[in-house]
Amino acid sequence: MQNKKQGVRHLVECNCYLPTQKNKAGEKIIFHGFPVFSVIDENDNVVPKTVQCNNCNAIHSVDRICGSKIIVGEEVHLSQIQKEEISLMIPSKLSRILEINKCDLTIWEEVLFCFQEKEWNKRIVIVNEHKNKFNKRVGKVLIIKSSQDFEIELFEIDNFITGIE
Ligand SMILES: [Zn+2]
C-alpha cells in the first residue's frame, strides 16, 4: 500500500552564522539554521528542492530532512515559490491571517500543501514565542477545518516540556 504524501517543516543548517552567534574564544560556533518546507512523496522519498538561506543567500539543494548541499556559484533565482503567489492560490481570509502573524514562507507553503492535498484539521503552529521571563512558550495554532472554515487556537505551555523549535 502506498502512503499519503506528507508535508514537513524542518531546519536546514547553513555554513553561515548570525552576528549574535559569533563564537567567543573556545566556544563552538552555532551555525545558522533556517526553516524549509519539504514534501515526502508516496514512496517515502523527500522531493528535492532548491532554497536560499535567509541569512547569507547561499543556495541549498535539499533532498533529505534536516540536511542539504550548498550549490556554489548558483545565482539568485525565481524558482522558489513566493508568498505573493501562494496568496493567490489560497482563500484571501487565510492569506490575511498569515500576513497579520508575519508567518515565514514555510508556513505559507504548509498551508498551501494542506489545501492542495485536502489535508484538513492539521494543526499548524503559526506563532511560537519564547517568554524567557516566565519560561513559557506562547503562540497560535491554525486549524484548517475545510476549504472555508478556519480556526485559531492560542496556546501557552511550560517551556521545559516541549521540543518545538
Ligand atoms: Zn547561510
Mind explaining what this structure looks like?
The structure is a single chain. Helix content is 16%, strand content 37%. The protein is an alpha+beta fold and 165 residues long. It folds into 2 domains: 6-71, no CATH class; 83-161, no CATH class. The strands form 3 sheets. Strands 3-4-5 form a 3-stranded antiparallel sheet, with no helix packed on it. The site of zinc ion (ZN) has 7 residues, from loops.
Strand order across the largest sheet: 3-4-5
The unreliable regions are none
Class by SSE composition = alpha+beta
Would you list the SSEs in sequence order as H and E? EEEEEHHHEEE
Oligomeric state, counting identical vs distinct chains: single chain
Number of domains: 2
Amino- and carboxy-terminal Cα gap: 33 Å
Largest sheet data:
3 strands, antiparallel
Average predicted confidence as pLDDT: 88
Named once each, the bound ligands are: zinc ion
Taking all Cα atoms into account, the compactness measure Rg is 17 Å
Helix content: 10-25%
Quote the beta fraction: 35-45%
Rough outline: globular
Number of strands: 8
What is the count of DSSP helices, taking H or I runs of 4+ residues?
A: 3
